[in-house]
């Protein structure tokens, strides 16, 4: 399923998913958003500025239990005054969804059971690869240091991609 049709069929997956434009229209102006890179063991978190121009890496959450992870995300939203979430959706190269994308949808669905949060998905194909290449080529970080920053930097990459798309 392609991303555009995925947004239109959001109720079928049990979660209200907004398009990027709808997220912008339904969240108060001058409020930041959070970006999430949902991995198997960690959640990379990034935040935008209030004008939604720049995304910055914020935190790495080491996954434990879903409720604890979700509450940490919600606390970060509250502490930043964030009004929306941009979650990376790991599509296959042909644009279809696989098990990892379904896992991201399940996270959003379960999070909305705790609190109604405006959510959109951002295609994250190759985001981690692009971030790792940047960290190696531009910053010359060691493997250990890259491991510490890659997921939250990937979250910033995902969020920045959404912010850039929104501005056209």
UniProtKB/TrEMBL annotation:
InterPro entries: RNaseH-like_sf (IPR012337), YqgF (IPR005227), YqgF/RNaseH-like_dom (IPR006641), YqgF/RNaseH-like_dom_sf (IPR037027)
Matches recorded under SUPFAM superfamilies: Ribonuclease H-like
Domain YqgF/RNase H-like: 31-131
Alphabetized UniProt keyword annotations: Cytoplasm, Hydrolase, Nuclease, Ribosome biogenesis
EC number in record: 3.1.-.-
Record bears the keyword Hydrolase: yes
Entry superkingdom: Bacteria
Chief location category: cytoplasm
Location(s) in or outside the cell: Cytoplasm
Gene3D superfamilies reported for this sequence: YqgF/RNase H-like domain (3.30.420.140)
CDD domains associated with the record: YqgF
Protein purpose: Could be a nuclease involved in processing of the 5'-end of pre-16S rRNA.
Family as reported in the entry's similarity comment: Belongs to the YqgF HJR family.
PANTHER family, per database record: POLYNUCLEOTIDYL TRANSFERASE, RIBONUCLEASE H-LIKE SUPERFAMILY PROTEIN
Official protein name in the record: Putative pre-16S rRNA nuclease
